[in-house]
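cache lookup: miss for this entity combination. No prior model stored, computing from scratch. Input as submitted by user K.M.:
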Amino acid sequence: MKNWTLKGLAAGKVTTKWPASGENDGQDKVLGFPTFHPQDCRPGCRECILKCPTRAFSTKTGVNDEESVALDYGRCINCQICVASCPTAALQSSSNLTFASKSRQDLVVDEGVNSRENDELRSRVSSIFKGSLHVRHVDAGSCNGCESELQALCNPFYNLHRLGIFFTPSPRFADVLLVTGPVVPQMKGPLLRTYEAMPRPRFVIAGGTCPISGAPFDMGYSGGSGLEIHLPVDISIPGCPPTPAAFIHGLLLLTDRINQRLHGGGYEQ
Amino acid sequence: MSNDLILAGCISLVVTCIAALAKRAFYLTEFTFGLGIVLLLSGAASSLPHGTHPVALFYSGGLTVSFALDPSAGWLVIWGLVPALLAGLTVPHDRISQGWFAGAALVILGAVGVAGLQDGISFLIAWEVMSLSGAYLLLNDRRTQTAEAGQSSLFMLSLLEVGSVSLLFGVLVLGVRDPNFASWHTSWLHLSSLAGAGLGVLFLIGFGAKLGLLPFYEWFPPAYSSGSGASGSILSGIVLNVTWFSLGRALLSWMPASSTPIGFGVLVLSAGVISAILSILYGFQQNDWRKLLSFSTAENAGLATAALGAAIMFRSAGLAELSDLAWIVGLIHLGGHSLAKGSLMLTAEHLHSTSGTYEISQHGALSRAPWTLGVGAVLGGMSLSAMPPMAGFVSEWFLFQTIFQGFRLSNSIGRVSMALGGAGIALIAAISLATMVKVLGVGMLGKHRSVSGNLDAAPGNQRLRPYATLGIGLMTLIYSAGMTWWIKSLSSASWTRSPNAVKHMVDGLLLIPLSPKFAFISPFLLLVVGALLALVPLALIRLRPHGIRSYRRVPLWAQGLETVPVESGTTPLVFSNAMRRFYSFAYRSKTVVGSDANEKGYFIRQLSFEYSEAPIFGPLLFMPIIRLVRWASEKTSKMQMGSMNLYLLYIGLVLLLVLVIGIFS
Amino acid sequence: MGTLVKAQVAASQLLNEARSLLEEGCRFQMAYLRYMGPVPEIVYLVDRGPNLEFLELTVRAETELPSLSDLVPLLSWYEREIMDLSDIIFTGNPEPFPLVLLEGMALTSLPFDPTSKEILQLFGDTTPPQLPEVLATQVQDLFWGPVRGDVLETGEFHFAYIGEEILHYTPRLFYKHRGIEQDLQQQDPESGVILAERVSGVGTICHGLAYCLAVEDALRLDVPRRAQLLRVILAEMERIYNNLHFFSMLSKTTTLKVGEAFGALLEERAKQINAQLTGHRFLRNVLAVGGLRRDLNVDILPTMLSNLQRDAIDYLDSLSATQSYLDRLIGTGTLSADVAFDFGATGPVAHGSGIKRDLRVHHPYSMYERLSLEIPVRTGGDALARSQVRGEALISAFDLIRQATELLEPGEIAAASPTSQPELADGLGWTEGPRGSCFYAVRIRNGLLERVKIKSASFSNWKVFPLTVHSSNMMDYAINEASFGLTIAGADR
């Protein structure tokens, strides 16, 4: 007969101190979102636009008729294909992963646009939940990658409970709806009904690239184009899937316990 | 004074019978019935705490038929009559025939006679009146007769007759010289110890048949379910109470302590505990309000009988005060049980009149009933499941405390059986809690779904019923909260007539089992403190800016489905199946699942299943007897060929036999 | 060696052909709809035996075809899926109601029909599912989901329940149907791998590799040796973290809290090793048609993996020394070999029921034939048997990585681009993932994907799972489900 209690005690503490202190967020060597510096682009080059499987890049014609390329991290599944195809150093691999943002605009690298608008009131309300946040998760057609990482949040390494964040079985006592998946047609009804059953104030997190924009499943008869057309989104956490650290960052960002690092597509180290 | 009131009440009930049989206006019958019970109630109430003086009613063949109400009997009659009164006032006129009132009046007359008549012969007559008019009551509990109802009444009567026969023997043995009860204690003393114990067993069987001790509880469900809740509240109120009183009188007053072996007490205790366990186990599995409640009645009778067993054991061990305690506990228990059962019987009746069924199923009974009914039912259910601070809690707590004092016995068999009895009662309490959760949770909750047509509008006197339910439910609360005062009226109820036991059961506002150092409860204080504590959340709600309206409200969540499927409600079987499997050795339960699939058993299109629990005594005891009687009648049928000469021959043979016996004896 | 032999059969001969194939010991794998120009045809994929080419049996689809479900029960779901997505009817299908498109949903036109010109859309709202008719009172329709407690995938489960006893169980999946097979149509075969890797998040390699193998088969690409061996390492890394997750979930359902935490921590360590090796915790973004996108540095693996292996063995030993854990697995969710075969159970589920079948051994790919591998088999068919074969598969994964690393030599990691492209090419790829067999059948026309059929392991195992739940206990349900180790994303696609 095995004494699991003793075995557990003997194993000691394995939980990371991140984000309170230390850098061990468990994401060592994970390839993050590519950094993009449009000013380094070769004029007329469309390599990334052609190669990107999720159409995250787009062109924009400025006032002086000059063409510029914009990158939408809300469509990026960090597959690194663009980095390999970029002939210059405009696109580079990085280890930046915690891209959670309060505004969809902040996910777009676009020269000249830098929005820091923030709904102050909602922010004040959401920070009430600093001490304790209850999350209802809905899988609206995800590939199970996000679920795997959300389940990992409760493993001893991340131990989400230490941050006062809990998953609840019912939306009726949840503060946040965390949606994964592109919201496929058959999941629209169950998702909206679950949101309706949440008492106010309620918040919505788009967990992963799918619920932000639908990419890469925003096509075909049973794809989805993300959460935004159905529900007001408070936090977007891009990633395919977001790493556990990125999820934690997004959840803490909702209650203003951590700073947003991505502004107008620029990442603060 | 008391005797006059009782007499007036009896006369009023006789008038009820006549009015009912004359089939005059319903209201006249109902009025005389109600008046009679009210008079009886006040008579019994004014008789406490000393009982009534004996009055001679009439002379007959050298025998003075006299009547006196013992304080114990008075107490039990009071609490048994309250549900009978409310049942009579709210019985649905459109369902019953007027004969019901005649039956009810006769049952109550018989019961009063059983409680108060002081000689063996008139007692037996009253007993038979009570039994037979009980059957009459059930037969008149409908407008049209059904074969099934007749059969269940016959089953009840035949089992009761088994009891009557053994009572007859008992009465014959004791009353052969003097039918007056006063002399029976002395007559019993003259019997040998074996004959004395045998006589005790005869009384146990005789009264046990009516109390529903094993195996007799099996007449309960078919009989109760052939009648309405109103009949049920009479049968499990006054009838049960006087029967238990009679059993107690036989075993504690007539039976001398000196000729009571402790083993006899063990027999009574185990008969009580085992019948209570079996009946509540079967009760838990019932899907019909009346059947479930009838098993619960047998369970409570078993508990009271267990208290009686303890009283006998303590008495034969010379612990008179403990014996008195146990007797008074039984009194308190049955009093509270009558009230609580009455509230649930009335609830069952109301559900039937609004939804057309006695079935326990989720069809939104609570959501369409007035709040009064809901509160009354919950109070009654709480009491039957012994939840504080209700009546059942007080009596079952006292019962435990009494049984715990088994260590005061010197006899090791007595100690062990007390300890086992305590364990059994704990099991009973647990299952009865589950049973009440089932009957109230499954039977009253759920979505509004009419089972058969729209019967929501309750006619005439039935609008009164929810109030009656609330009233009787509240009485179970008042009964327990005021027990420190009410109990004083029992001070001379014990057979030793010593007020010490009752005096030692109260300490200020506390109830204690003879000694304050052993344990204590105080339903009154609990009620007061509970009410005060409830003010805190109420105040918190009130202090919010918009009161209760300001709470966050959201629609029901069906796990993402549009609506909660109708079939997803908990069914009674779902609630009780786990127990059914765990105790399958007792239930000998069967579940047969069938499905319509392809030849390999894949792709199931249709599902069916059957389930059953086998009654213990039906197939093992009663069926063989029935088969024996059938066999005998088949064999003897050859003797009746319809030939007149043959019959004359029989008569001739019998005459010859009589002659031979006459000559040679 | 090719992967496919093809045969055509007339609709009238279909039943006879299927019967004789079964008698020869062949095994049906899947069925799907494909259009040859405007003409629809049904393709049955049949496994003829170890190391033999698979048989592709095609039948021209008329509006009505005989159903093979009674003969080959595993085909029932494929037939229902085809009925949902086309107007073909399989007469005699025992459950002729919606599967992939739920009740209440409707399509504007047919997804795979090239002649259809209308805009293709799925619309509506789901309505209650078709359940077996219950001819008894007292039965509760206990439902769970679609949105279930905790962090779980979407799925709606119905139990015909009478308190503790489950009379019948109906899982309703496909809420998450994303139509990926149709998304892949008209895509460039090289970029298709991005979607294939995302069919099932925890089956990235199993799906991605099967897709790559299928396309490579169609385009006749020779994958360099180093890439093949690295692919083996990736596949076995996937097996490691999935099986650790499996034991964590099994501990959770047997209420072994510390055991659950240990399993979850080991899984986390395995995922972190994945990230160290490939830059992605789920091993994504490495596979490419023809090889790998970039070379991998496997030097870091031996130390990390030997530590993980030591702890994993210790963990498994601790579990198998825990009486309460074993008690709840023994006899739970028993699956007989016959039922497992009839419904096409695969992977550990089949191994636990005594079916010794593993594509890595019987139809080796990606140099598995060069590695020594023992298929773990148990005959109990219960949750314990399934967990034991999982445990052995976990340990053998470490061993396979070691073997593959030893064979590894520096070299190319991507095949040379094909010189000429045929107008029409069919390919079949398969892998034995942590949950069982995964098949990809591709047809490439003029350099673009014309049809991709995906068969995930869980699609097969979900079909067989309910048969172990009928007439069982509710207390055992969660354990039984965990012992099957199912995912919904792969099955729903």
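stored under new cache key. The radius of gyration of chain C is 22 Å.
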